[in-house]
Amino acid sequence: MAQSKRAVVIGGGIGGLTAAAALHRSGWDVTVLERAPSLEPVGAAISLAPNSLRALDVIGLGDEIRDLAAWQGDGGVRTPSGRWLSRTDADAVAARFGGPLVLLHRATLINSLAALLPSGTVRTGVAATVTDPGDAGRPARVATSDDEMEADLVVAADGIRSAVRPVLFADHPGTVYSGFTTWRVVVPVPGAHFASHETWGRGRIWGSHPLKDGRVYAYAAAITPASERAPDEKAELLRRYGDWHDPIPAILAAARPEDVLRHDVHHIAEPLPAYHRGRVALVGDAAHAMPPMLGQGGNQAIEDAVVLAHHCADLPAYSAARLPRTTALARQAVQVARLNLMTNRPGIAVRNTTLAGLSKVAPALFLRSFEAIADWGPPQQPYASRQNPAGKQLRRTPSEGRLHRTR
Asked: Coil, strand, or helix at residue 292?
């Protein structure tokens, strides 16, 4: 019997655990090394689009996550006074792209991914880095504080501050500050009933979304100097957003200071030359950190993971499959961030008027702009899910990565 190949995954976040589950499903002996003392994620919620849900179908998790979909009816974009600039129907999105948008707590997703792995796969409290990326003739080597490990494949899923990325690409400049900071909170808000929305102000945005468990996920972003912090971040949110439309004041009232998370946003402005070197592959933020305005950071990490599992014997093919798509999305996210966080009043007026006009005259344009993101599908077929039963195939257009159902 052939000996199973060994993979070491550095990082126990969404991308790392998805890669571990996909490789385990393919017969690999997998070890996950996570530097934090537990898998409890730092963060609040994550939005999963149809593209990443199809990727999760590959590891048998797609329908479990789809069942957590909470968005119902209309959502859209508003002004701080509450005026709607655009409306989007959740049912129309699901119908067009073959599935819903699912908003869930990151801890829920992490727990579901970890449950797919054998006991003992994940080792927490272990910092690791690559000492030798290996090549076709020798394994890669991973060093921890306790020992050194050899692996046929190393998956570097160690995030935006990746310790592996500069080992592979020492001349790359790394990340840059995106120019804004973000706040996130997940809190129960008794009696709150509202449509999901994102609100655009001057150099500031706010988003409010109900979760299926009854809590509310809210986030905010504002242009600030790097590393600026307030003594009380809840008070800072009240100062910036306390007079915006309902339900924002109610959400802020329900939040405690310790509920508020704040992080500056960084991204990789100069794309890496590849997402692999030797036997090491980068996934997620370690490869292509992007601003969160498209909501695709975690989604792209999930895509990376299942594509890597498909191309694990040919890492250049993995880079070729992922680099163009993620580079384009990262650039688009930067552009959307500039649009969302405009500070020029005449420009804001033009932006809002254009958005409102298009929403009334050509609402399908908003969905069409999402097609290149949401229509993606993994190379593994068929996908086992209720949304796409095993007997029904999906055909992918190679030039666009879009999916078409066949009858």
From this structure: helix
